[in-house]
Amino acid sequence: MARISSSVYTSHVPAIGAAIDLGKSHEPYWEPLFKGYESSKEWLKNEKPDVIFLVYNDHATAFSLEVIPTFAIGTADSYQPADEGWGPRPVPVVKGHSELASHIAQSVIQEDFDLTIVNKMDVDHGLTVPLSLMCGQPSQWPCPVIPFAVNVVQYPVPSGKRCFELGKAIGRAIQSFPKDLNVQIWGTGGMSHQLQGPRAGLINKEFDNAFLDRLVEDPAGLASVPHIDYVREAGSEGIELVMWLIARGAMNDVVNEVWGSDKGVGSKVKSNAPVVKKRFYHVPASNTAVGHLILENV
C-alpha cells in the first residue's frame, strides 16, 4: 500500500523564484535564505519520494476571479509553468500522477469533501518555487507531483479546521492506494505578510514561530485558530498558513488515531509524533517571512 513518509512545509515567495532564475541566490540579501535550504536539498535526495502531493494556492493564473474553486486537485499527466505576466519560469514541466490523483479524488469526495477535478491547468510560483527551493535547478523534477490548489485569495476561504480534516481524508486516501508508493505531502504559502494597505510589509516573528511550534506539537489545537487571528497577527496574506494544516493533518499521528477498546472507554491510541528533521525561519524575503519545516513519520 502507499504511505506518506514525510511532510514538507515552506513559503512560496515569488521573489525567491526570480532570484533563482536571475542568478541572484548568492547575493548578500538572498544568500542566508538559500543556505537555509541546503541541508533540505540533501535530505530530499536521500529520501526521494515516488510522488509529491503539493498543497498550494493559485494566484489568478489557472483560475481567474470569475471561477474560484475552494479545493481543486490536478489529475492531469503534466502541467506547464504558468505565465504570470513576465513569461513562464524557466523550470521543468511538472509531471503528474493521474492514477493516484484520481484515487485520492474518489476517496476524498466519498468522504463528503467537495473537490474540483482539474484535467488541464498551468501551475504558478505557488507550486514551482517550493520545488526550486527543495530541488534546485534540475533538468527535470525528481518525481511526479500532484497539484492541490486551495483558495486563500478570494473570501470566503476554508477554515483551518476544514483544512486539517481534509488532510486526514487525504492521508486515509493515500494509505488505501493499492500500490507501494512513497508519498510526501507538502504544505506551502505564508508565513506572516501583508501586501497592501497601511500594514503592508507586516512581519510577526513571534506569531510565526509559535505557529511552527504548534504545528509540530498541537496541530489539532492550531486548527481551531479563527481567520481573524491570522489576519490580525499574520497579515492579510498570512491566511495561506491554513494550507500547512492540510499537510499536517495527513501525518500518521493524526490519521492513525483510533479508539482503543483495550485501553479503556474513550481513550485513544496514537502513532508516534513525527520527527522534526529541519526547522528554518528567515526574514525578510521581499516583504515576507519565510518558514520551513520537514517532519518524518515514524
Radius of gyration over all CA atoms, rounded: 18 Å
pLDDT below 50 for ≥5 consecutive residues: which ranges? 259-267
Domain count: the total is 1
Global shape: globular
SSE series: EHHHEEEEHEHEHEHHHHHEEEE
In percent, how helical is the residue content?
25-40%
Mean pLDDT across residues: 95
How is the CATH topology named? Protocatechuate 4,5-dioxygenase, Chain B
Strand count, sense and closure of the main sheet?
Answer: 8 strands, mixed
Total number of helices: 11
The named CATH superfamily: LigB-like
Strand order of the largest sheet: 6-3-7-2-8-1-12-11
N-to-C span: 16 Å
Strand content: 15-25%
Look at the helices and sheets and give the structural class: alpha/beta
